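Batch manifest line 237
LIGAND: IPE
JOB: complex structure
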Amino acid sequence: MSLFKKKRLSRPLPEHIAIIMDGNGRWAKKRNLPRTAGHAAGSKNFKDIARYCNKIGLKYLTVYAFSTENWKRPADEVSNIMNILRDYLKDAKNFKDENIKVKFIGNISVLDEDIRILIKDAEDASANATGLHLNIALNYGGRDEIINAVKEIVAEGISPDEITEQTISERLYTKGQPDPDFIIRPSGEYRLSNYLIWQSAYAEYWFSDVLWPDFKPRHLEEAIEEFNRRNRRFGGI
Ligand code: IPE
Ligand code: IPE
Ligand code: MG
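JOB STATUS: finished
ARTIFACT:
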């Protein structure tokens, strides 16, 4: 094994990386292509990065695929994104073969029935996988997620003095999972866009101008190196 490979395999990793897969539209525009071509390239890149994360032994990866705000886009763009998702899910048996455990987070209940069935199939097929836990945030909004948690708490009749951070965490889509410790946003935007707003309270952030379809394993490696140089104090000294 080359020294380089050895170094890569031996470095510490974040426990849970969350990525905002942004910049597909601008990537296409730069090439005089329709936005749909950007989403197709972004989807391919997502598969490559998920595989890479699994290969290096990352435990959790959460990717932002479609937000509760993205419905504001033209209907043909939304249906193009849903069709890309359909294609992806149709060969989702790959997850099982790759030992990736896939889970969808977000309000899936309003999506078309065929998509809901494909999602359930993909989750069921990979339920026993022991590699990467891959969360795909779809029709996901951090505020929506917290509202749902509050509704559950009220419906369960939990009294105010019983409510702790755990009461909320346990009612989020990510229940049972560690909070993301590293959030990556390519595309030159410096915001969360309603992503994992509860879970990211103490995450480290990494921003880059690279557009998502151009975001390669070497960019991820650069980000991880930077993560490993950060001094995380969590309010201590
Ligand atoms: C991210 O890329 C994909 C989704 C939000 C679904 P964008 O489509 O937001 O790309 P830009 O930001 O317009 O370049
Ligand atoms: C965030 O990107 C959502 C996804 C990547 C799925 P947006 O492109 O929707 O975010 P804004 O509109 O720039 O905040
Ligand atoms: Mg965008």
